[in-house]
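pasting UDENN FLCN/SMCR8-type domain-containing protein for the record, 259 residues
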Amino acid sequence: MHEEQSLDMKKSNNGNCAACTAQFPLVNTGQSISEAKYLITTDEEYPNIKYIGTKTPPQNHLYKAVRLACVRSLTAEFCQGRDGPVLFGDDENGYVMSYMFKLRDSQARGEARFYSFMILMADRVYLISCWPFIVSAFKSMVIQLQERANAVFQKEKEVKQQQQQFSYYSISNRRGAPISQEQFFKRRSHTPLRSLVDLLGIKDIYIHIQAQFSFVLKLASRKRIEKLNPGRTESMLYLKMKEEYLAKRHQQQQKEEQG
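structre below
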């Protein structure tokens, strides 16, 4: 695509923690096993077109724009219910379509985690023209993630209830000092947030997201088609006036040649 675009998915947390960082698959180089630095999706129809996914944009100007978009998307920009699309941006940092959503997490505060799918473009008109398609594609992706998260959430809640019942009977049979409110919140605050891989229980979740993002970019690029729109057709009156003008001009040229 000709315009600069960046797709990214960020968490509403600060710091270099597992919950804020994408987990790419491990690669065996023969000498060591390390995490892949990027993901590449090749277009089946046009093999020379490749979609590259990285944790952070390699270009400095894009890094600044994406970082600002992530912060605004999850802190300053809101839509009704905090679920759905929102548009914001400017000519300097680009225009962003952010689709905000939440996933159920039994270990998170409020049992919910907020995420956002974003697409950043320099062309606002082009982004708006792709709006219905992008919103529909992101909504489908979100529904799949939420269904998986809800299934994991219900399973973990059942296990937690069983553990609480067992702990209740164990505590009732022994004496001990009760946990204060301060100790409870301190213990809860030290619990690290899980990564999206652990939250959904899908090891290759970012590979699926990379493939879906590539599909969105591919179909969105097809909407950028230049058309030559013909002007107004020449009326009979215009053609008559044009013919008279050309005839007079021809007569003047003949007189000048004879003179």
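The helical segments are 60-76, 124-129, 131-172, 181-189, 196-200, 205-221, 236-258.
The two ends are 62 Å apart (CA to CA).
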